[in-house]
Amino acid sequence: MSTTYDVIVIGSGPGGYVCAIKAAQLGLRTAVVEKRASHGGTCVNVGCIPSKALLHASEVFMEAGHSFAELGVDVGKPKLDLKAMLAHKDKTVEQNVKGLDFLFKKNKIDAFQGTGRIRGEGKVSVTGEDGEERELATRNIVIATGSDIAGIPGVEVDFDEKVVVSSTGALDLDKVPGRLVVVGGGIIGLELGSVWARLGAEVTVVEYLDKILGTMDGDVSKQFQRMLAKQGMTFRMGARVTAVEKAKKGARVTFEPAKGGEAETIEADAVLVATGRRPFTEGLGLEQAGVVVDERGRVEVDRHFRTSVNGIYAIGDVIAGPMLAHKAEDEGVAVAEILAGQSGHVNYGVIPSVVYTAPEVASVGRTEEELKADGVDYVAGKFPFSANGRARSMLKTDGFVKFLADKKTDRVLGVHIVGFGAGEMIHEAAVLMEFGGSSEDLGRTCHAHPTLSEAVREAALATFAKPIHL
Ligand code: FAD
Ligand code: NAD
Known about the structure:
By secondary structure, the chain is of the alpha/beta class. The chain has three domains: 4-149 and 278-346, FAD/NAD(P)-binding domain (3-Layer(bba) Sandwich), CATH 3.50.50.60; 164-275, FAD/NAD(P)-binding domain (3-Layer(bba) Sandwich), CATH 3.50.50; 350-464, Enolase-like, domain 1 (2-Layer Sandwich), CATH 3.30.390.30. It has helices spanning 14-25, 41-46, 48-65, 67-70, 82-106, 167-170, 187-198, 218-230, 286-289, 325-339, 368-373, 389-393, 422-434, 439-443, 453-464; strands at 4-10, 30-34, 110-113, 115-118, 123-127, 133-143, 147-149, 164-165, 179-183, 202-206, 234-236, 239-246, 251-257, 264-268, 270-273, 277-279, 312-314, 353-355, 360-365, 378-384, 400-406, 412-419. Strands 1, 2, 3, 4, 5, 6 and 17 form a seven-stranded mixed sheet that branches. α1 packs parallel to α10 and α3 packs antiparallel against α5 (82-106). The mean pLDDT is 97. The site of flavin-adenine dinucleotide has 37 residues, from α1, β2, α2, α3 and β4.
C-alpha cells in the first residue's frame, strides 16, 4: 500500500527544506518534491550562497590591492585567478547541497525529484524529467515554490546569460567585463555589481528611483551610495530603462528620465538586469486546485499560512512579504509547528535585512521615513564608526549606527547600520526588539572593549542620553 504523508512540501529552498526538517523533527511523515537537480532552491544554488562566496572572495581581492599595504602587509599587486574564484563559489554551493541531502536522510524525509502539481486536496503528482508521473497522497501540502527573475515590465529582455545576464549569469561570467551596466539599484544589483567592480569592471548602475535600496532608511541609502561612488561605481538615478539590446559586441542600454525627457543610450560589455523577482507558481495547478493568488501572482494566505483550500499552505517568496531566505525559513518552521498542533508564528516586525557589500548595510524594524509617514513621535540616535577605536584599528571607519526609538516609551522601533560587520551586529538590535526592549536597555548593557558593537551601544546612548566617545 502506498504511503500517505502528513505533509508534502513542494520546493526545497530555505522555506521548503526548513519546513520539511522541522516537520520531520516534530514527528510528521514528510516528503519534499523538487524539480531542480539539487536541493536548496534559489538561495543555495543561485542566490545567497554563491553570491556570498563571490562577495567574500572579491572583497579580499580588493583589500589585498588597497588596505593591506596600509596595514603593513606587502603582498605586491594581487593577481586575479577568476577560475579559482568561481571554483570556490561552486564548491561552497556543492557543500551546502550535500549538507541538505545529509539532513534529509538524517530526518527520514522522502525526497522526490520532479515537478510537483497539486491534483486536488491531499494529492500531489510528481513528473520526472523522463515525463513519467507518479501520484502521492498526503494530509497537507505546503507550497514553497519560491520566485524567479521578473525582468523589466514592458521591456523585452533576451537573457543569454553571457552578455545580457540575470543574477544567475552574473554569478558565472568567465571574464571580468570591461564595462558592466547594472539595471536596478536594489540588493542584487549592488551586491553583484560590487563583485565585478572589485574585480576591475567599470560599473554603471541605472536606477529608476532617486535612491538606491528603495526600502532602506534614507540616511543609510544616501551615505551608502556615496561610499559605492567612492569605490568607483557610477550612478544614473531617476532613470527608467526602456531597452536592453545586444549589439555586435556587447550590448546597449537605453534609459530616459523617470520624470520624462530625452532618452540616452550607453554601451556595455555586459548588462545585469536586476529589477526584482516574481512569485513562481507555473505548472503547480493552482487554478484547478482552487488556490487563490493576488493581483501580483502571490499565493494568498491567512495569518496561519492557510491558502483558500483546506490542507494547502504556502510560505516563502511565493507569498507576500520580503523575499528573504530567513523570512522563508521562519515561515517554514511556523507552518511545521502549526501542522504538528503547535502555535507557530512569525514576527514580521523584526525581520533583519542585510546587504552584503563592503561596507555592509543592515536594518531591522521601521525606517525614519516610515515613522514620519505614520506620525510616530520618535527620537533618533546616531554614532559613527570613525569614533570607534576598534574600527580605527581595522581601517573600517566608514559608516554609522542609527537607532530610532519611541519618544515617550523609549521602545526601539528601528535600527539601521552601514559599516563593516553590520550584518552580524544587527542581531543585537533584533533580539532587543523581539523582547520589546528600549534603547536604555541596550545602552546599559556592558559591551566588550574594543569591539565594533560598542558603536551600537553608543548609538543607543545617543538616543536616550549622550554617547561617551563623541
Ligand atoms: P526558493 O529558494 O526560490 O526555492 C523554491 C524551490 O522550489 C526551487 O528550488 C524550485 O526549483 C522549486 N520548485 C518550484 N516549482 C516547483 C514545482 N512545481 N515542483 C517542484 N519544485 C518546484 N536572501 C537572503 O535572505 N539573503 C541573501 O543573501 C540573499 N541573496 C540572494 C542573492 C541572489 C542572487 C538571489 C537571486 C536571491 C537572494 N536572496 C537572498 C533571496 C533568497 O534566495 C530567497 O528569498 C529565498 O531563496 C526564498 O526561498 P523559498 O524557499 O521561498 O524559494
Ligand atoms: P529589488 O526590488 O531589490 O530592486 C530592483 C530595483 O530595480 C528597484 O530599485 C527598482 O526601482 C529598479 N527598477 C525596476 N525597473 C527599472 C527600470 N525599468 N529601470 C531602472 N530601474 C528599474 O530587486 P532585486 O535587487 O532584483 O532583488 C530581488 C529580491 O531578491 C529582493 O526582494 C531581495 O530581497 C532579494 N535578495 C536579497 C538579498 C539579501 O538579502 N542580501 C540579496 C539578493 C537578493
